[in-house]
Amino acid sequence: MKTSNFLKAWATFTGTIIGVGIFGLPYVAMKAGFFVVLFYFFVIVFLAIVIHSLLGEVARDTHKIARVPGYAEEYLGKKAKNFSFVVSSLSLIGALLAYLIIGGEFLYLFLKNYLGGPVILYTLLFFLFGAFLIYRGIEIISRFELAMLIVFVLILLFFLWRAIPFIKFENFLTFNPQFLTFPYGVILFSLWGMALIPEVKEMVERDRKKLRWVILLGILSAALCYLIFIFAILGASGLKTSENAISGFAFTVGDQIIVVGYLFGLITTFTSFITLGLTLKKIFWYDFKLPKEISWFLTCFIPLFLYFLGFKNFIEVIGFTGAIALGLESIIVIFIYKNFIQKRFQRPTPWWLYPLIIALIIGIGFEIIYFFSK
Prior knowledge:
Number of domains: 1
Number of strands: 0
CATH topology: Amino acid/polyamine transporter I
Number of helices: 15
Structural class: mainly alpha
CATH superfamily: Amino acid/polyamine transporter I
């Protein structure tokens, strides 16, 4: 397999993981405490690598084009497929809604001084461009994964460089036990790229070793970028850290960085909106055999409908999506893997799968506790 294929697979996977979650992380760290978030990162990075690797093993040795619902039908049955379809759809719809919320906000902040108008107008503009590309099915974004990831890293390093003179150590010492469970869902959401595993499998030509390395390096690369971003934004902004990270940071270090910041946000949110939108469309289209046009309509307009219903707090959206929808999807993947190894290799269930399930159930409980303690 060519090295360029490996780099493309790594860039696609890493670029899809790095999405809207990055902008909520400094705010979460400010609320709960930097070292609380650091602890969550160590735990959730390990959890994410294991769960993604389990799905990678299933995808590699299952000779069908499918997503999690398709694998659930193969190894768990029709009812499990239907339940998995609901859970996977909710996780992707939640992600698309989050991208719509913050992407529209970034577009508004980027252009409002030139064009004026309300934020909802820019949200619709963001939606229309994204929906058009998802409808056409042109994965043009995927042709420039590595270049865009390099641009992302350069902007991130620029942020760090601008932040260094303003960073104060005391900004990392905050702690609020009221928000102790707050980071879990947001961090889990920010590290998730399971929807891309089937594509990555094809990119590395079903090479098990390469697939494992893409998953490992992709998640670790995303986590490192996130920690650098948290260090720069929280370290400089402190208690002025905003929910979208950029506004509070610009207030601290100077408005001249704000254009770069909003452009950074647009690149990150729009590319992932397209990639995940295409993935959800394929779930409707391939796994549930819906017509292509209906699959596109459901993919694009359900998040827009939820937006107009009033679901506009993107941190709450990604927290709920991460802890509950992705938590349930991960439990499904574990059971898929359990039946997969029994069916394909006649091997007993590894004992360590059960602690993983317990950890994910605890994470769902964390989100419920936070929701009712607000």
